[in-house]
Design goal:
It contains ten helices and no strands. It has 204 residues and is mainly alpha-helical. The two termini are 37 Å apart. It is globular, with a radius of gyration of 19 Å. 22% of the residues are buried.
C-alpha cells in the first residue's frame, strides 16, 4: 500500500509541476516575439526550469511515462528559446548550446550533488545515515573498482521492488560510483557542479 501511496503522490506532484510550467510557458509565448534568445533563455531558466528542478531528486527511477510529462515541458521550453517549430528537429544540439541538461540528467545531477555533500561531510545527518563508504581496496577486484579508490559508496543488496529502487540509499551509490574518480574527488561544491555538468554533457 505504501508503494501505491508513493506512486499516487509522485503522479500528483508531477501533474502539478507540469500544470504550473505549462501556464508559465503560455504566458512567455505571448511575449516571445519581443524577446531575444538571451532573454528567453534567462526567463526559461528562472521561471520554468526552477520549477522542474524543485525537489527533483524525488523523481529518481520513476517510469519514463511519468518523466515524459516533464520532458515535454523542457523540450517545449527549448523550442521556445530558439523558435523551433518543426517537431522533428533534433533538440540535443540546442540543449548543449543553452547549457541545459535534459530531465533524466537533471535528476541524476541533483542526486549526485546531494551525494557529494554527503561524502564530503556537508549534508544533513539524515542523508549521511543513508549511505556507507565502501572499504578501500588496494587491488581492483572488479572492472568497476579502481585500486585505492576511497570514494566509492557501498552498494546495498539489490532492491526487490520498484519502490525500493527509488530510495536514495539504493539509487545514490550506483549514481555516485558511476562518476569518474577525478569528478568524485573534487571537494569544492561549486567546482564539483561545473565538472559534473561537463561530464554529463558528454553523455548525450
Amino acid at each position: 500500500s505504501s508503494g501505491i501511496t508513493q506512486s499516487t503522490g509522485m503522479e500528483r506532484q508531477i501533474n502539478s509541476v507540469k500544470k504550473k510550467c505549462s501556464w508559465t510557458m503560455m504566458n512567455l509565448r505571448t511575449i516571445g516575439r519581443y524577446l531575444d534568445e538571451d532573454i528567453k533563455l534567462m526567463m526559461v531558466k528562472q521561471l520554468v526550469i526552477s520549477k522542474l528542478d524543485y525537489c527533483n531528486s524525488l523523481y529518481m527511477n520513476l517510469p519514463k511515462t511519468r518523466l515524459n510529462k516533464l520532458k515535454s515541458i523542457l523540450n517545449g521550453a527549448v523550442r521556445f528559446i530558439y523558435n523551433i517549430h518543426d517537431r522533428t528537429t533534433d533538440l540535443v544540439p540546442f540543449y548543449k548550446k543553452s547549457h541545459i541538461l535534459p530531465i533524466d540528467q537533471r535528476i541524476f545531477f541533483k542526486v549526485c550533488l546531494l551525494t557529494h555533500k554527503t561524502v564530503h561531510g556537508t549534508a544533513p545527518c539524515y542523508l549521511k545515515e543513508l549511505v556507507k563508504m565502501d572499504e578501500v581496496s588496494d587491488i581492483a577486484n572488479t572492472r568497476s573498482k579502481i585500486p585505492g579508490d576511497h570514494l566509492r559508496l557501498k552498494i546495498p543488496r539489490t532492491a526487490n521492488t520498484k519502490v525500493e529502487s527509488r530510495r536514495f540509499s539504493n539509487y545514490a551509490p550506483d549514481a555516485w560510483n558511476s562518476l569518474p574518480l577525478m569528478v568524485r574527488s573534487i571537494i569544492d561544491t561549486n567546482c564539483f557542479k561545473r565538472m559534473l555538468k561537463n561530464h554529463l554533457y558528454k553523455q548525450f
